[in-house]
Design brief:
The chain has 2 domains: 15-193, Tetratricopeptide repeat domain (Serine Threonine Protein Phosphatase 5, Tetratricopeptide repeat, Alpha Horseshoe); 211-264. It has 14 helices and no strands. It is elongated. The protein has 264 residues and is mainly α. The protein has helices at residues 15-19, 31-49, 56-69, 74-86, 90-103, 108-120, 124-136, 143-156, 160-173, 179-191, 195-209, 213-225, 229-236, 244-258. The two termini are 13 Å apart.
């Protein structure tokens, strides 16, 4: 039977990069030059965030011009880092992320991206330290993302209890509205055989966002694990036959229930 898998989603945030504004400089640029520099930055940002590889050299040119007038603005270095990421130049990617942090120790997007880099490199200790810095910083406005990203690291380290606690915190900071967080919490609970707890959270999720093939299937799976086959079958009846993914899962779980196999 196909298992529910973790949604290992790592979230990049660009909102801070587009709103933080710091312009100290040895030579204060004129207002006209600053406006032109920001125009160059926005043109580069548009290319990079839309992953327009054909125009990437143009983005580098815009950023080079913007950096002349805005040499102390961390946004410039962060965007240069993202441009080098597109070039698959990881060494310069990390170098410019660190440069953005040097310019502003509270430039949160760079910390988040750096944590993701360490995660992808399997340097989990550094990833934990980086995401933890965001979590303990009272100025960071996206605590849910930091908790969620750190939970991904704990999963890799097989520390499922800590991962579960972090996803719960992510849910709390998101106002319990994020479906991805709900699904990951439920998957963690099922992985740890906390079937009653998982069932309770599926029902809470359904109260907020309504029932779906996901909630019906997950309820059925929990009921099957709890040796309640009739309730499991009742939930499976709600799954639409025109949903290929859940129709297959439905058939597999139903066959397993009818065969009387153990689900624990």
């Amino acid at each position: 039977m196909k298992k529910i898998t973790y949604l290992l989603m790592i979230v990049f945030l660009y909102s801070c990069a587009s709103t933080q504004q710091r312009y100290p400089s040895k030579i204060v640029p004129s207002e006209k030059n600053k406006k032109l520099a920001y125009l160059e930055y926005e043109m580069a940002r548009n290319i990079i965030l839309h992953k327009d590889y054909v125009r990437l050299p143009e983005a580098f040119k815009h950023l080079k011009n913007a950096r002349v007038m805005l040499e102390n603005d961390p946004k410039i270095y962060y965007m240069i880092a993202l441009a080098y990421r597109m070039r698959n130049d990881k060494e310069k990617y990390v170098a410019y992320l660190n440069e953005a942090i040097k310019k502003d120790k509270n430039f949160f997007d760079a910390y988040n991206a750096l944590g993701i880099y360490y995660y992808e490199k399997k340097e989990y200790k550094k990833a934990l330290e980086t995401f933890s810095k965001l979590i303990i910083n009272p100025l960071y406005p996206h605590g849910d993302v930091a908790f969620f990203n750190r939970s991904r690291v704990y999963i890799k380290l097989k520390k499922l209890d800590k991962a579960e606690n972090d996803v719960k915190s992510a849910l709390m900071f998101s106002g319990n509205r994020n479906k991805t967080y709900w699904q990951n919490l439920i998957a963690l609970e099922i992985e740890q055989k906390k079937y009653k707890q998982a069932l309770s959270n599926v029902e809470k999720m359904a109260l907020i966002d309504g029932d779906s093939d996901y909630t019906h299937y997950t309820k059925a799976l929990c009921y099957a694990k709890l040796s309640m086959p009739e309730k499991a079958k009742k939930e499976l009846k709600h799954i639409r036959d025109d949903n290929p993914e859940y129709y297959v899962l439905k058939k597999e779980l139903l066959q397993s229930i009818n065969a009387g196999k153990s689900h624990n």
